[in-house]
């Protein structure tokens, strides 16, 4: 029986905000964080550069990215799959 290896790499879901670079996309990831004192949920946004080897993604696509070894100075994520294409 073949066992699947469980990866410890983080997987994030976000929206592509830029695809102008060759084989690179910029993905905006939103997370909800609870304020420690007020207990109100705050929306945090962060942008990650991810490797898109086939230039499949366009602006507005919802994608999943996974941690990967450093490919350049700022690119440490790899495109896992496209969840939803933009219209």
TrEMBL record:
Pfam families: Ribosomal_S17
GO cellular component, one term: cytosolic small ribosomal subunit
GO molecular function per UniProt: rRNA binding; structural constituent of ribosome
Keywords linked to the UniProt accession: Ribonucleoprotein, Ribosomal protein, RNA-binding, rRNA-binding
Protein's GO biological process: translation
Subunit architecture: Part of the 30S ribosomal subunit.
Role summary: One of the primary rRNA binding proteins, it binds specifically to the 5'-end of 16S ribosomal RNA.
Family the UniProt entry places it in: Belongs to the universal ribosomal protein uS17 family.
Protein's recorded name: Small ribosomal subunit protein uS17
Organism placement in taxonomy: Bacteria, Pseudomonadati, Thermodesulfobacteriota, Desulfovibrionia, Desulfovibrionales
Name of the gene encoding the protein in the UniProt record: rpsQ
């Amino acid at each position: 029986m073949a066992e699947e290896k469980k990866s410890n790499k983080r997987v994030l879901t976000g929206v592509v905000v830029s695809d102008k670079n060759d084989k690179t996309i910029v993905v905006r990831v939103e997370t909800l964080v609870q304020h420690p004192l007020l207990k109100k949920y705050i929306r945090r946004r962060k942008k990650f550069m991810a490797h898109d080897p086939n230039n499949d993604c366009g602006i507005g696509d919802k994608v999943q990215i996974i941690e990967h070894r450093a490919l350049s100075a700022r690119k440490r994520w790899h495109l896992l799959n496209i969840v939803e294409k933009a219209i």
